[in-house]
Amino acid sequence: MASSSVDAASRGRHDDPLSTSLQFLKGVGPRKSADLRRAGLITVEDLLYRLPFRYEDRSRMQPIVSLRAGMRAAVLGEIRSANVVVTRRRGFKIFHVVLADASGAIRCTWMNQTFLADILKPHLSAVVFGDVKLDSSGLHFMNPEYELMGDDTTAERTGRIVPFYEKTGTVTPNMQRRIVRQALDHVGDTIPDLLPQELRVRLDLMPRRPALEAAHFPPTEADVETLNAFRTPAQRRLIFEEFFLYQIGHAWRRHESSAERKPFSVEVNDRIRGSAARVLPFRLTAGQRDALKEIVEDMCRPTAMHRLLQGDVGAGKTIVALLAAVVAMENGLQVALMAPTEILAAQHYSTIARLLAQTRFRVELLTGSTPGLQKHTILAHIERGTANLIVGTHALVQENITFQRLGLVIIDEQHRFGVAQRATLQAKGLHPDVLLMTATPIPRTLALTDYSELDVSKITGLPPGRQPIRTWVKPESRRDEIYQLMREQLDAGRQAYIIYPLVAESEKIDLRSATEMADHLQAEVFPAYRVALLHGRMKQDAKDQAMQAFAGGRVHILVSTTVVEVGVDVPNASVMVVEHAERFGLSQLHQLRGRVGRGAWESHCILLYQSPWTDDARERLKAMADTTDGFVIAERDLALRGPGDFFGTRQSGMPKLRTGDLVRDHAIMEEAHREARRAVEQQTLSPELLHFVQHRWQDQFGLIEVG
Ligand code: ADP
Ligand code: MG
């Protein structure tokens, strides 16, 4: 959207007090400014938009005598004694302090932090904050936060509600408060406000300068609980501001791109409909038909499509994408289909090549392991336009490919790709239509971020004849029962997957256990059946062979690391055993389970866990047993992991936020989204807002656009 160099230049402008570098504030020496810089705080604005994460009411400090077990409290007192005790059991070092105020005294205990003896010395005044606990020797604070008061009881730290900030290097809490105070004084009484006046009045939002003041140094009458819930008018105003600026960028870009015309046009007539129908091996479900209709309507528009096709695992997204591809190819355009793994790309390629065998369209497969000479030929075909549909992995964006006439880009399992990769492939065409596919439903919270300007089609329902999948959560010790169940299925002609986790730190160990398991199963448990092993470290040929042997029914049990997690389709497989299921994320388990239940037989998904398991793991496996609905699972996953981890953060286009929180402040985000669209559509953007969107948006939110 904009180059960050423009912004770098404007940051240095001296006329704007918000862009003053922190090192020029009084009391910020080179050391502190280096610490602040390391925490990402460079300008006055950076500092003022990092709100306190907690507030403490020091005008109403809790008298020690009133403390009760289970309270969360702050007390101010004098340190009466301080000493380090070494426990007999395992040699723990415990640091004890006795803190006293006019009403009484309480013990504070820190485990293994003996360095505190140099800080918390007798006769000093300190504030201690934390949970009050009770044990056989009475009430105490365990590992509380602390702050020394010294003799200095200036207004920033006592007798009022005081703010707490994330720790930044050697800058103590009190120094942080003083620097923020300086920064607020530095910017003066008024600062320009990007929020339109009309909007502020209508939504009852505080002006910017007072909001910053009150968010950092709340008035004494403010309510500490409301502050700690981030719901004061000042906090709400600042969070809204951030979300609004973010949404304005999306809304504006959507508006702009709707004015850009594609350099080609797509039409559908009876001949093309007939051609698509000949490719189709079965009747589309109603859900597939609706989705296809929306996609093709977009393609026929003069502006580029940006559409997300959402459908649970097994819903049948591939055929919908292929039919869209046929429409594009019939219009003389090339199509690129990008998949996240080589196995999946190879599988798409073979399905598509089979379905297109009777047509005049030429399909090519291009992955990182395509041999050099062959690659050369394929690239030439792509450039000359004699290759119509190119299936590949991210090699499609890395290789030096020139398309002759790329009109449609399809990205399968799009959440597996980084935003940058998607954007690069897109840039290889001239405003190509873009279709993203995902089996991971986008939770409400995230739908308003990265995806807010995409159009969404949903395939609801599954193809006919599917049998339900039964999910079993079992301790590893009940393995024999599982083998029994597998045997029944194998005897009935079905196939089975056994999945091993492969986490980076213990890759070797897991690889060994997967290999040993494959040998053991072959030799001792299922000698009558063929077992094959598939893992990420195998050569591509060997991987393809194993996968093809399984798909062709020549291998009955596939022992695999998670490479089969995404997308592969072997309808005859009816058993999925996941070893160490407690180590997998919820969405991952859902993907894995989606590998079975694709045929006409009842299927089984067995989640083996090894105790002890964490509460989180128990929650995840319980969620899996409770539902097969991908949407419910995605919401549970988000709740368990938080939005940061959900899509792998930065990579996948989560905005870099300073004040707002996607989960906590979701309602504010919805409001901001509505208002931003409205402002863009009614063309009420001020020149300042437009400047922000064009020159600073990208830098502030750290994003590249999607779709
Ligand atoms: P996903 O949405 O998970 O990518 P796929 O496109 O791999 O699902 O489809 C899953 C399976 O369902 C495939 O074997 C596919 O051939 C089959 N399938 C898709 N649509 C239909 C349909 N309308 N009728 C019957 N089978 C279908
Ligand atoms: Mg798929």
Helix proportion range:
25-40%
Number of E-type strands:
21
Radius of gyration equals 30 Å
Kindly report how far apart the N and C termini lie.
Answer: 14 Å
Portion of residues in beta strands equals 15-25%
Please count the helical segments. 26
Question: Which molecules other than protein and nucleic acid are bound?
Answer: adenosine-5'-diphosphate, magnesium ion
- Note poorly predicted spans: 1-13, 648-652
What is the 3D form?
globular
Q: Major sheet, described briefly? A: 7 strands, parallel
Mean pLDDT rating: 86
Query: Which structural class matches the secondary elements?
Result: alpha/beta
Strand order of the largest sheet: 11-12-10-13-14-9-15
